[in-house]
Write the structure tokens for this entry.
Amino acid sequence: MSVARRSLVIGVSLAALAVAPAIALAAGEPFYVTLLTRIMIFAIAALSLDLILGYGGLVSFGHAAYLGIGAYAVGILAFHGITSGPLQFAVAILASAAAAAMIGAVSLRTSGVYFIMITLAFAQMLYFLAESLNIYGGDDGLNITQPSNFGRLVDLGDPATLYYVVLAVLLVLLLLTRQLINSRFGLLVQGVKSNERRMAALGFPTFRYKLAAFILSGTICGLAGALFANLTLFCSPAIMHWTRSGEIMMMVILGGMGSLFGPVLGAALYLLLETLLSGATEHWQAILGPILVLVVLFSRSGFFGMLTGERTTRGRADG
Amino acid sequence: MKSIIAAAAALSLLVAPAVAEQSVKIGFVTTLSGPAGVIGKHMKDASTLALDMLGGKIGGLPATIVYGDDQFKPDVGRQVSEEMLQRDKVDFMTGFIWSNVLLASYQPIIRSGVILIGANAGPHELAGAMCASNYFSASWQNDQTPEAMGKFMNDQKMNDVYLMAPDYAAGKDMVNGFKRYFKGKVAAEVYTKPGQSDYQVEISQIRQAAPKALFIFLPGGMGIQFVKQYAQSGLRDQIPLYSAFTVDETTLPAIGDAAAGNYEVSFWSPDLDNPRNKQFVAAFRAKYHYMPSYYAAQSFDAINMIDAAVKAVKGNLADKQGMIAAIDKADFPSVRGAFKYGPNHFPIENFYLLKIVKDADGEYVRKIQSTIFADHADAYASECKMK
Amino acid sequence: MQDEVAFGGGLLNLLPRPMGAAMTAVLEQLLNGAQFGVMLFLMAAGLTLIFGIMNLINLAHGSLYMAGAYVAAATFAASGSFLLALLAALAAAVALGAAIEIVVFRTLYDREHLDQVLATFGLILFFNELVRMIWGATALYMQVPAFLAGHVELLSGSPYPTYRLAVIGAGLAVALLLHLLIARTRIGMLIRAGASNRAMVDALGVNVTLLYTLVFALGAALAAFAGAMAGPIFTVESGMGESVLILAFVVIVIGGIGSLRGAFVAALLVGIVDAMGRAFLRPLLASFMSHATADNAGPALASMLIYILMAAILLIRPQGLFPPRGR
């Protein structure tokens, strides 16, 4: 029963996403295409965090850093006249992987609240680094004059094309991560989350598994950053601000962590609420705030859990 | 796919409102929250007043102004601008206090073809290499005002001056403008965080450097905090403070005595003697019960410029070239008096020395002392290659 | 503090002039750092107690600081009495703190940390908007009280703002009172016991619910006190609590969660490192690299300094400087 409902929720959401741009453009409202693209990009970022937060119990409070690295990779290369899409995305992915490897190698030596704070610390360092890069605009940000160039076939400058590219990336990532969590690696990571000592006693190199998951998560988030740069054609340190890391975490918890599709719904819910409420009243935060509190107090498995009637595998992320 | 698009098209006919009689929509981006919110209030009030005085019509067409809050953040400003272009489908964009917000929002606005009128910020990039035919400044190029202060302090034979400005696009323009006309020794150039509110560390550094004078550019809340803290530290009596865009009608109510007798520079002041300005200041004070600032004056002018442009094309908003040509003539009653546009769409105008004094009601006001520059053009016009 | 400074002044007269000037510069920045540090301590003290005893991550602690600042600024502007403003801020924060503890947090104690983060993040949004609805979106400016306006000549030719000295003094006095409360009183004993072993306090038959509300109100009062004193130094605006909150978290993590002594040491460390970095890093870098590079790298490095400090301390001592015992 539950599986059917789950498929229904996912199917309806994806079908709606597939036809949305046609309707919005026909209605002469390109704004909604941009909004939905933004939602899907944050869905990718939230999905990446869910991989380690929901399945690995690793509360990273610095995920916006990878978003920033991905965006700045596109922005900085474009600034120097290198607009090749494959190259920009390759650099974005490699740079965020490298950063995640270094940050993970250090942070994973700690746990709990100390882990939260040390991931925050690294994100803050990168934030201030971006602020100091005066050649790339520093605090003022960097204009990107043209989107990543993928040849004549795919023009990311066209809102509808960018939309479908992001949708495709999101779908592929959803499928891949689903495979991954059911693989031996995925089960091991979940095992580490529920009882790291036992896994270590059984002879598994738990640190290496956690690090691999951490790097993978950072890399996916970096990819989201490169897409984000193509949407906004602008990047500034604000993309790495700690409140952004907080927002991504909110999306995961709101949607239901440890469910992969939950974070996608969480991103949609968070950004749609923000857009709708801010359009309706200047004091929208006074409404959004209590909604978040109520979600926590009355729903233990996030929005996705409410829709599907399942308790998601939300275990103890011992923060 | 075809049937989907057909269905969508049918749906859109239901959703889209019937084409109403033509109207004008103006997007106004400013800062409405936080320490700079008071600046946004001046701009919002002045633009509302301008539209009221025009009978709610721009060029004879019914008009509305949509206000957006940039929070003094470039990325937010850009997003707000894009929403105004895409969702609200505005015919004009104006406002913009901050150079970095304007620089971030510039590209999508210019590409959309919508006419943009900067009502405050004037970063050098936009006066030079990045100038565009559908962009005008209703204010000044950033360097111009501090140039006037540089000239004044140079003429006073001052030496050993310490410079301080926030670390963002306009901060560097201001320092460069000052140095263009000040030929004495510069003790140091210090850039602080935009939006900073505690300056004790910087004040201690100034004390150690012991310069002969201090020139600052710290608009809005930054200026309120610095000028007050500077007075509390006891340095005000030892090292005189000169400023641009810092001690003005938006900050004086909070600064009070701490800036009495200070000098400022501007292209405009409430006491500027011309009939249009008297009309504006009187109407503004009658409606809002406080003294307008140059931010208000520029916003008031921006709305009137748009009105003149729409009048010139007789309400044909599709005639962008006609409107651009009309604005370029600067043929509207400006509160600064008559002025001309340079080839880069930046004003060629006067700059005055102002002093902070008490008026008849015992309130601190800025009062014109002398004209430093007459018909002063900016330094970047030659770099502008406009099509 | 006063003694130290007087000693410094005496010593300075014996030193050659440039050396003396350099030393006044350092002393003055030390004071700036100490002033920021004691304010961080007031924030961090409540946070670390609440975290240590109730195991609750309270992001809304910054909202109490903001509430204190707003109530103080509004009361001061209306009444002209700084003392009244302080009392009003404390009363408002205690009432607010107790109210949210009873309405929201009691359901959150048994929840995961992530639930607490989401719920208290929701509270932040709500309170930030609430102050905008009550006091407007533009910032408020609080004057320095007349009796603390002006400056004191600490060293000859080197005046220092009286208000800032008063903040340092008040902060140290509160730290001392807090120490006495925790170390010498029965409530303090229960709080200490709660921080190291909650089950034991339960077993003693103490009304834990009441104890929790009390600790929460105490934390709220400390945050509001910091907020009220911060009013004349920073701008009073919506969202002012968050940047301080992050630094307060840095402080309690460096100090060791649940440790008041750790929070005190870490707060002063963070305050002083921050002030020193902002003041001296750029000139220091400029002495061996180009001025343009130093102008660029100096402020950036200064901003990063406390985070580098935290990461380094956690690498050497993963549980902070004063790790909690009994856990």
The CA atoms of residues 119 and 138 of chain B lie 5 Å apart. The mean pLDDT of chain B is 92. The two ends of chain B are 42 Å apart (CA to CA).
